[in-house]
Give the backbone structure.
Amino acid sequence: MFRTLAVAAAFLGLSHGAWAAQSNVIEEILVTAEKRTEAAQDTAIALTVFDSEQLQLRGIDELEDLQFAVPNLIISPNSQSPVTYAYIRGIGSDQLVAGFDPGVAYHVDGMYIGQPSSMPGDMWDMERVEVLRGPQGTLYGRNTTGGSINVITKDPTDEFEMVTDLTLGNYDDARIRTAVNGALTDTVSGRLSFISERNEGYQDNKFNDDHNGDVTDYYSIRGKVKIETGDNSNWVLTAQRFQNEGNQSQKRREPFGSIPVYAGAIPNPSDPREVAKDYKEELDLTNSLYSAQGTWDVDLGALGPVTIVSITGYISNNWDQSSDRSVEQCDSVPDLEHGH
């Protein structure tokens, strides 16, 4: 009995010592918030950063999830469009007009995303996400009054890797995510990421069951190729496409029963998931992104080593949407009464 207790005490003492030693170690995360690679602790910016492991542990699967882990950040989805608006320290913009720019900038792999509708909503297969708080005009230019959200996707490596997960839920929700990585030749490696999610919608249209709203129908695919052009240089080529055909959850609806509901109120006072729309709402948001990033490590002698990075990109964004904005009474709304 004494030996058992002694061994247990020794084990507990060792575990406590190991835990104490590990607790004094601060994990170093390299960031590019200041357009150069450096430790997050050495960056003179109000910064919150999550690497791929932290994103998974915190359950950050979508762009909107960042607001629950980043101070002073609010990401507000628009019920009438697929666009999400970011506000940092209360500064942002909610304009839907194509000519308006956001108050918080979005960047993907160093490439500026001009419109919020061009920003992929999923956080799958990310190297890290950086949220910069406060004006960043010196390094990032215009449209960064509130700050910047920088998304860095995983680059290809020469080691084989394959990750897949499947999520099923109610309302016939199904999501599949996969990523494959590996060497293609001695100097070329590639990475392919894919995500798709669909469900039957959370909003029940009593006028026509075929017009249900708040439907998820989304996919995104990204391919990256890394070419080693020398001992100190490489190119990373990226092609990405995502499409969103999920109907949105409109809130301006017809009156229910004998008590009229003014425009802008919730659809049904007793059940906000019930609506009466006589016009089918549809969405087709398609985005294509292409970029090429070249990196050269050069020794300038007395000036020391420097890294030169060139980023060239192109984005195409098409957004077609139809909405039932009428507040007129539907001719026939079966089985729908106020308070039902």
The chain has a mean pLDDT of 79.
